Amino acid sequence: MILHSWNVNGLRAVAGKGFFEWLSASDSDVAGLQETKIQPGHEADFGEVQGYRPSFVSCTVKKGYSGVGAYYRREPLAVNAELPDPRFRGEGRLLHLEYPEFHFLTVYFPNGQRGQDRLDYKMGYYEAFLAHAQELRRTKPIVVCGDFNTAHTELDLKNPKSNEKTSGFLPEERAWLDRFTAHGYVDCFRLFEQGGGHYTWWDYRFQARSRNVGWRIDYFYVSDELRPRVKRAWIESQVTGSDHCPVGLELDLG
């Protein structure tokens, strides 16, 4: 089973930059999307295409903000939106597709760079997400993908020293990823690649992408029960259209 994740930074914008051509060529069974920026009531503008059906969760508290979605060829058993914790509903940050073999979660985690209130919100969201994932895991394994808005280790960004006090690489954010992995969630890309220089987001300024001055903040994690099923994981850094690139995961479910 082929899975993808991509922060598209506006689905309407990336649709004009080859998104659907990429999707058609990707052979993806499920493609989770983040930062779709679809306004409530406009989801029908992005209907079924090339054999893929969509589901979206839009932000209801701020126009043209956040939002997640997925295009899938394989029909899920159920589709659910948002975290159960009411403090973290409304920004359109989580879509849950349930399949017989696993729960698939595509998540756009909050950014903490707009001040202490948003950093506190981000850390609270992390904790609420972990609790929710652990509850779902009681029934079947977890696949979670998306923009975590945190680089985990110094290998995951070009300039770690100069970003030690920047949200996205703060000690408390990285410590949460330590806790997440300690609960038995596996960074799939690191099963196959231990080195640095592999990024998924580049600032639009300063020719950062052409210079590969980036951050790896987009991930696929699986709960440990699925680790033997992970066949490969990769980063599609050559795919443009957004300031992020797609990441992929193949599971052997046979």
From TrEMBL:
Marked site (Transition state stabilizer) residue numbers: 149
Feature type site, description Important for catalytic activity: 218
Residues the record marks as active site: 108, 147 (proton donor/acceptor), 244 (proton acceptor)
Biological process according to GO: base-excision repair
Binding site for Mg(2+): 7, 35, 147, 149, 243-244
Cofactor(s) for this UniProt protein: Mg(2+); Mn(2+)
Alphabetical list of Pfam families matching this protein: Exo_endo_phos (PF03372)
Keyword Transmembrane helix part of the UniProt annotation: no
Keyword Transcription in annotation: no
Cofactor note: Probably binds two magnesium or manganese ions per subunit.
Site (Interaction with DNA substrate): 244
InterPro entries tied to this protein: AP_endonuc_1, Endo/exonu/phosph_ase_sf, Endo/exonuclease/phosphatase
Alphabetized UniProt keyword annotations: Hydrolase, Magnesium, Manganese, Metal-binding
GO molecular function: DNA-(apurinic or apyrimidinic site) endonuclease activity; double-stranded DNA 3'-5' DNA exonuclease activity; metal ion binding; phosphoric diester hydrolase activity
Enzyme Commission (EC) number: 3.1.11.2
Family the UniProt entry places it in: Belongs to the DNA repair enzymes AP/ExoA family.
Protein name: Exodeoxyribonuclease
